[in-house]
Amino acid sequence: MNGCSRYCTFCIVPYVRGNEASRNPESIIREVELAVQEGYKEVTLLGQIIDLYGRDLRPRMTFDQLLKKVSSIKGLERLRFLTSHPKYMSKDIIDTVAENPNICEFFHLPLQSGNDEILHKNE
Ligand code: SF4
């Protein structure tokens, strides 16, 4: 995925990368298949809030559906993804990680200070 549509107060991402846009699943799968054919063992899927993957596609799809498709690529030994957001992480994503041995049990979550004094220092 590229971009982000959340416009959090201190973040530049939407201004430099644009709004959230999911890559076409076929192009992702093709790219991973080629990487595996070239000998790559591990692939990481990237998105600012990767849990939201696919909601802008027509037809829509969900990130756990993409994970299942990519993890089924023969020869792919390890699959990771980042970044997840606690608000959008779904049980379907967690179940997909649990059910597919080549998806690493690894969750990358953004945690930032909730301390008012620290946040005011950036004003
Ligand atoms: S969700 Fe993350 S990437 Fe998107 S605007 Fe907020 S801090 Fe930036």
Please give a structural write-up:
The chain has helices spanning 13-17, 25-37, 63-71, 91-99, 116-120; strands at 42-46, 78-82. Helix 3 (63-71) packs parallel to helix 4 (91-99). By secondary structure, it is mainly α. The protein contains five helices and two strands; from the N terminus they run ααβαβαα. It has a single domain, classed as Alpha-Beta Horseshoe (pyruvate-formate lyase- activating enzyme), CATH 3.80.30. The protein has a two-stranded parallel sheet. Strand 1, helix 3 (63-71) and strand 2 (78-82) form a beta-alpha-beta unit. The protein is globular. The structure holds iron/sulfur cluster (SF4).
Helical content stands at 25-40%
**What structural class results from the helix and strand content?**
mainly alpha
Q: Gyration radius, to the nearest Å?
A: 16 Å
| Global shape | globular
- Please give the CATH class: Alpha Beta
